[in-house]
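Why does residue order matter? Because the sequence determines the fold. Keep that principle in mind as you read this record.
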Amino acid sequence: RQPVFKNNNFLGLTIGVYDFPLLITEALGETKLSEFVFRIKNENGKTLWKSGEMRGNPADAVLTLRNITWKISAGWKK
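Structure:
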């Protein structure tokens, strides 16, 4: 959650809700998704979402939005 201010007046809190499967599908477009597995972990290493089990070493990317960090991994389907 993040506070929202206007002219130093507190308006409320915001929160983000993400549909990870839809985000990945939209981001990758025409890629053959059936061959890959995706995983998203929080900054503590807890898996928030995964599309299946992956084999080997995945390719990882770190994404930080505001004060939240996620590790997004893509790998071959097991």
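The longest strand covers residues 54-65.
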